[in-house]
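Lecture notes, unit on binding sites. The following record was shown on slide 14. It pairs a sequence with flavin mononucleotide.
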Amino acid sequence: MSKTALPLSEVYRLLEPGPVVLLTTLWEGRSNVMTMSWHSMMEFEPPLVGCVISDRNHSFGLLRMSNECAINIPTVQMADKVVACGNSSGANLDKFVAFHLTPEPARQISAPLIAECYASLECRVADTGMVERYCLFVLEVIAAWIDPAVRNPQTIHHLGRGKFMVAGETITLQSNMP
Ligand SMILES: Cc1cc2nc3c(=O)[nH]c(=O)nc-3n(C[C@H](O)[C@H](O)[C@H](O)COP(=O)(O)O)c2cc1C
């Protein structure tokens, strides 16, 4: 292969994890939704997820105060709403109303789940040690919900500059990972 230099500012486009998710929060009776793609699994059980949530986002303060959130996983059918939630601030907008998202009560946290998403993870903040420096929250998933009717969820994966990859074919290979 013949490779050329890639500007360092473009590196994130190669390593973007997926899927793009919708993070829901609630504090003092006001809920919010934020689009997020910078997340990573950190432990199998209890499931730990590292999430970078910018302190310029309204969601940062809500998560800081409540220490709870939900990670909701949308499919490509909701792509327009996902982009809309990532380009607007909950500081002056009720995104549930504006983008026709249906809040559902969670079992163990106060923040709502999103009915239109095929899976939702209820999370508590487990570690804030790297929040100040990197805006990195370590979340513990304490309850998880999935729609079993959705067989091959077409999740979307951010490639930067308005491009997304849609999850496609699933293949089975030998692996030591569970
Ligand atoms: C595809 C996509 C992925 C994004 N991923 C993140 C992310 O991982 N972390 C983050 O802080 N902001 C991310 N954003 C930006 C926030 O979603 C955006 O700033 C949003 O307006 C914040 O909403 P809020 O102010 O209501 O919390 C992403 C936006 C898009 C469109």
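Take-home: The two ends are 32 Å apart (CA to CA).
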